[in-house]
Structure prediction request, 592 residues.
Amino acid sequence: MFRMGGIDDDDKLDSEATKRVLRRAIRMGAPFKKTVFTALAFVALSTTGLLLGPVIVRYGIDNGIDGGDRDVLRNAVIAYAIVVVVAYVAARQQYIFVNRAGEGLLQALRVRTFDHIQKQSLAFFDRYQSGVLISRMTADIESMAELVQWGLLQFVAAVFLISIALLLMLALSWELTLVALLVMPIIIIASRKFQRDSNAAYLVVRERVGQNLAELQEGISGVRVIQAYAQEGEQTRQFVESNRSLYKSHVHSIRVSTWYFGLVEAMGVFATALAIGIGGWLENRGDVSVGTIVAFVLLLSALFEPVQQLSQLYNTVQSSAAALNKLFTILDTEPDIQDGTHDLPHRGELVVDDIGFTYPATDTPVLGGVSLRVADGERLALVGPTGAGKSTVAKLMARLYDPTVGSISLGGIDLRDATLDSLRERIVVVPQEGFLFGGSIADNVRIARPGATDAELRAALDAIGALERFEEFEDGIDTEVRERGSRLSAGERQLVSLARAALVDPAVLVLDEATSNLDPGTEVIVERALDRLMNGRTTIVVAHRLSTIKRADRIAVISGGRLTELGSHDELVDLGGHYAELSSAWESSLPR
Prediction:
């Protein structure tokens, strides 16, 4: 049996929240107001044409057919044809203009959201998983498409159509209007129930779609593990269960719609039958004409369709408002890393002053009381056990995060006060794995400085000794790297990352375990490139290989979120502390 449940509270908004979200969306659509007003003008024109048709039919029947005046009948036919053509053209134009405005709003919203996400710090991406952000950019924005492209148009047209149709019906015959409205209480009660049931059904469908996509993604992403343990059958069984649940939710939503639309259609037929029956009796009494009855029946058919549309629109508004609310939550998130007003100097001492840090996603401090002074041009290695906080210190020194307490400065300028442009020029991070984008090797190096010339690009590659290696490829540095750099080896991808840093020519280089994922053969090439890149620069190295650590001027041991030892390799070995134990373990693990 189908059960409702497991609905995300974020999908439920009360009426006030819905109105607030929609008002904000309308304000965002202000640049497209001319297009919207043009669309509304065509809505009014097409709706007027639709309602004028029955009036012209009444005139033609009463004055042309019953009156025996062929000229009147001919004129009525011509007028009706003109009205139909005008209404048709206006209807097509209203769709064009409303979709132009709707697509314009969605395009602007996508760009604004993407730009806002790009400006966020790493703390933001700790709070939001990439899948959630992609969902906001795709599924949530697409769920609004129906509202901005069709929903608002339907709402305006339906309200206009119902209002004018009722006025015309009253003008034609108040008696027939009262008869037709006898079914409205039933439709109103049914519409309220439909809105409640269909909204719940929609939310379940949305949840089941998400679960089904999650099963599909895991099945594809983890196919190697699945095949390695011969679990294809079990994965298929789980997907079948997820798919069956999605199927049941869709079937339930169809049942909810079927009974309601069937009821509205039946009430429309019943109201039409009453209008014809009572209309015939009134015509025999001489209270109404045959043309009035025909016009009334035509107006009734135009009245019940917008009633259905308004009920459907309720769910569209609810789902779109929920999607917008989630999107606005992201847009309202201020970047943690704010732009400062001072340019960082090209050289200077890097000072870490009593910093502490707590990741936004947790309440547990990961660093406390860490102080360091790194001289201009000095190489400092950060070592320690996994999870001790060494990578966190490096990220704070590059201002990928701001410390919770304390400060970090370069050349006397607090990094919080630095402009982001000068910060990213003076301090560059080379991550553990060099991420490559689709495009050529040259395109990927140029990401560091989009305006760099070909000569500067080649100079950067040559500075780390990688130019000759890449020019050996058939297409040289114009070689396509394919998705995530799959055409290149791990070492070659890291060489591209180092070339990016060389192109920027920073004052401070932060290497976050830049050689940890390399095989011994490739490591030699990358290590040689690193030596060239580090020459003459302040360098912070997060390292776990003894060969890298020994080349540092000083070594800072981070343990339990605190700086426990500081000195050269020989000094710390002689100290006999934590570093001496690590060094001994590394020495014993080396091949003999």
Remarks:
- The chain has two domains: 9-331, 380-389+427-589.
- The first helix runs from residue 15 to 28.
